[in-house]
Amino acid sequence: MIMKKFEMLEQLEKAQKHNQQEETSITNGESMKTEEVSFSTQQLKEIFKQTSIFTSDMVGGGGVQNLDVLESFDFFEYDDDQFMKDVIENIADFEEENELEEYENFWDSEYDSDTGEHDRKRRRKPDDKAFHREFFEITDQNGFVYTVKRKSKPIDPLEPQLVKVPPEPISISWAKTIKPFVKNHEEPPGSTYFEDDVLRFDLKQLRNKEFQAILVDAPWKLPSKPEHASDSRRISPDQLTKIQWNAVMPTLGFVFMWIDKELIAPVFAVMAKLGFIYAENLAWVKFNVNNKFNEEHYKYFNKSKETLFIFKKGNGKLELRHQRNPDVYFDFVKNDKLLTEDKPEFVYHVIETLLPTANYPTPKSDSSSGEEKKVDLSEPYVPKLLELWSKKGTRRKGWVTIAQNK
């Protein structure tokens, strides 16, 4: 396209020289030296416009043959002055960006730093995608390249937009498909699962006699809900004494227990009789799917959270890891009809972080080769984490889980 501009400039220059020679001959009657040819701004604009657009005649015929056709060509619906202003502004913006990049890398280039050399290699290039969204180029038979501005139709954002969905089966390239969920039936390593009556379960049969942590999600019999009175699966705080605590935690350990707020006082009294003292708590603030608090009616104040209380037994030392987990956790409620509602998975993470020596051993990487060392399990692994009233079918690595069978 640039060659076409030079060609038209040369033709115009010859025409003006010829006109000057004729005018000089008529005026003085003799040939005189022709003055240097200069073009007006209007002439330059006309040349720029004529060599920046095209018609089908120009592409097929091998060049600009009929200049009258260009006047009626409507790809560029630009005012001449406005068009030149846009061109000048674009050039100025491009030059300004280059100057800023040079300025930013000035000191790096002065001191030959690696960062400066790296930055110079990463200098920004013109946005070709943005250019091709607004313009496209066509080459004619003679090799001339014509840049054409695309016609764009203004879109009202308030108008409804029509989206055509292809018929089934929908191509994978058209939409993102979600594969069906397939449950992993492999048992996690170091996991043990039982399904029985939790209060009557003989904890002495477990291999480990000294668990470091016991997670309890008991199905409480709440006084505020009359329907719980006839449910034999639900328990009162006094029934906690039926669990064989000393068989699995004789001297030292932690009990993590979910307690409804109307049962806090009686449960604390029972745990104190069993030798457990209160240490800390973690609150689960319950949300609905609409991001509003889940409020459950109560005679004093509505319930919108549940609390996980932590009790400690014994004065010995356990290796505890400092953690930055929050003591207030926000999560959604699952409206299931199980004996107890699903608790956040975050609780397991808190317990396993707090008690690092209770976790199932994980492979350690060799610092020299980077390869993982296999875990030495020459002896049967003895879990150190116990969960009572877990969800049916729940297995977790390094945990013993006992679910209610009814």
Task: Spell out the key features of this protein.
single chain, about 400 residues, alpha/beta, Rossmann fold, 2 domains, two-stranded antiparallel sheet, elongated
Describe this entry's structure for a reader:
This protein is an alpha/beta fold and 406 residues long. It has 2 domains: 137 residues, no CATH class; 198 residues, Vaccinia Virus protein VP39 (Rossmann fold, 3-Layer(aba) Sandwich), CATH 3.40.50.150. The chain is built from 11 helices and 12 strands. An 8-stranded mixed β-sheet has the order 3-12-11-4-5-7-6-8. The chain has a two-stranded antiparallel ribbon with strand order 1-2. The longest helix is centred in the N-terminal third of the chain and has 27 residues. The chain is elongated and about 125 Å long. The termini are far apart. About 7% of the residues have low confidence.
Secondary-structure blueprint:
Elements: H1 2-28, H2 41-50, H3 56-61, H4 67-71, H5 80-104, H6 106-111, H7 114-121, H8 128-134, E1 135-139, E2 145-149, E3 192-196, E4 213-216, H9 245-248, E5 253-259, H10 264-273, E6 277-287, E7 305-313, E8 328-332, H11 346-354, E9 364-365, E10 372-373, E11 385-390, E12 399-404
Parallel strand pairs: 3-12, 4-5, 4-11, 6-8, 11-12
Antiparallel strand pairs: 1-2, 5-7, 6-7, 9-10
